[in-house]
Amino acid sequence: MKAVKLGMPLFMILISLTFLISSFSIPRATLGNANGPLYFPIGLSIFMLVLSVIYFLKELKTLNEENEKVKALFEGRTLKLIGVTIALGVLYAFIFETLGFFISTIIYLGALLFYVNGVKKWLVNVIVTVAFSFITWYGFSQLLGVSLP
Amino acid sequence: MEGFLLGLDTVLEPMNIFWIIIGGFLGTIVGMLPGLGPATAVAVLIPVTFGMDPTSAIILMAAIYYGAMYGGSRSSILLNTPGDGSAIAATFDGYPMAQKGQAGQAMAISAVASFIGGILATFGFVFLAKPLANFALQFGPAEYFLLMLLTLSAIVSLSIGKMVKGFIAMALGLLIATIGIDPQTGVHRFTMDIPHLTEGIEFLIVIIGVYAIGEVFYNYLSIDKKKKEMERMGKIWFTKDQWKRSKWPIFRSAPMGFLVGVLPGAGGTIASMISYSTEKQLSKKPDEFGKGAVEGLAAPESSNNAASVGAMIPLLTMGIPGSGTTAVMLGALIMLGVRPGPMLFENDPGMVWAFINSMFIGNVALVIMNILLVGMLVKVLDTPAKVLYPIIIMLAFIGTYTLSYSTMDFFLLLLFGIIGLFMKMLDFPIAPLVLAIIVGGDMEQNFRMALTSSNGSLGIFFSSGISIALIVITVLSLCYPLLIKLLKKKQNDSNDDAMSA
């Protein structure tokens, strides 16, 4: 809980520092104003850094206040649901081009539905998976002319 | 007038009518889902517009948008769960009406109020858009930069109580927009030698990540909680007495909502809240508000729909979106090669007029759909969320692929989904991030172009009446939250005084 509340401002501080430091390694421009590409990134990352530090201090003050939503993240199977969705998404990225749209979509959506909706409702899951995969494949590749693997 | 007829002709093509109906229908359905609003609806359905001609695409997207606005109030009334900010006011009196067994009446009056609000605002659009486009023709790079700055700061300061987080989100968005090759000098920025990043991060991927994946993750937080019981519908039409009570509130709220919608950064949420509190103050029976007063539902419904039409004006005439949803639409339009701005009215009047006409027809189609088919539509609320969320995830992935034909972007999509989840969980406003990513590139280029033309002097930002006015409004908008705080404090103090006396 506290890790999330402090983690976010720290993450923002880290991001703004990363942008700030790498701003200085942006090559000078050979066209126009040599420093032109630098103004915006440097100004913004300093602005963001200052605000993130303020945010961090604010969170530090209210560290012991409960946040219902952050609590819900650690309750039940929320974390698992998010984890499984991401893991399957990564898998999808790897199989999408080799197995093709249709098969990989059936695998991703099917697995996700079985996990989220439960094994008991297998019939609904199967029907939705096949119907969705077919309709999107038909709609995109045939009607809208999008080329899918 | 000529343009109007030309546009009408385009809209009446069977294919465009078909898109209006489909868009309105799909928008209503996504809008109805608890926890999902118009921005998500448009974001998820963007890929459908690819391959369409731009006129049909904008007609479809607008139909999705106001479809979602109509649909949003269904879940507010029946489940007390608004899909997004602009549907919150509909829960105040809509849900109590449903609890009293008047859900059908509430939905009918909300559909009619939305309809009137939408139609009146479309008239407003006809009269205001062209003059505003002409006015915007006077804008140079300095003015554009300041206008974007105003829009961003207004959207942050209007998310009251979240100023620091809002500005962090904005800065993050603007920084993300700088990734890639700088168009003025060809310098690579923050690409980390990854070839995929040289063209920058596609903003639609960020949008789909945050609004679709992030929203689903966020809804995972409550997915296993017991489902709320839906109230019974009852008859789907309102009584004469209810109409008499709501008539004036509806007509009053439409112009107000429209004007709020035109303002940068404001939009449906603020419009509906303002008209709710106005009606409460005007009412002879203010104590009925919150307990199922029909005008307390009708007024914000009219106003938020009018605001959604008003929000199209800065989008189309200046290319500057004033809200999360219009930002998403701008992203999609740029994808399709349409550059909204003052020249759009000169270069492509056919498209603008077709769009205006489509709003008239779309509102007619939606009011019919929402009254006749409401029984069928609310069945969607019965569809288990556990089936819908995986489908939305899939749509997000497919949409992403159609943008770039690269599975690399799936990782970006997931990354922004996670960022979106944490932002929502920790009360960050999302709109400043999305808006900043979309206008960021232009904003920087305009800033530098202005400086180049003035040989590096910042004086250019104070050189015209328009820019000074924009700066003053920006400063005022930043003071607005402080003002509210002060007022509240004063009110509390005087209450305390009264108590002690």
From TrEMBL, chain A:
Keywords: Membrane, Transmembrane, Transmembrane helix. Pfam families: TctB. Coiled coil: none annotated. Residues 9-149 form the DUF1468 domain. It comes from the Bacteria. The chain crosses the membrane at residues 38-57, 78-95, 101-117, 122-140. InterPro entries: DUF1468 (IPR009936). This is Tripartite tricarboxylate transporter TctB family protein. It comes from Mesobacillus campisalis.
Automatic annotation (TrEMBL), chain B:
It comes from Mesobacillus campisalis. Signal peptide: none annotated. Residues 17-435 form the DUF112 domain. The keyword DNA damage does not apply. Keywords: Membrane, Transmembrane, Transmembrane helix. The chain crosses the membrane at residues 17-36, 42-66, 106-129, 135-156, 201-221, 254-276, 311-338, 350-375, 387-403, 410-438, 458-483. Coiled coil: none annotated. Pfam families: TctA (PF01970). This is Transporter. InterPro entries: DUF112_TM. It comes from the Bacteria.
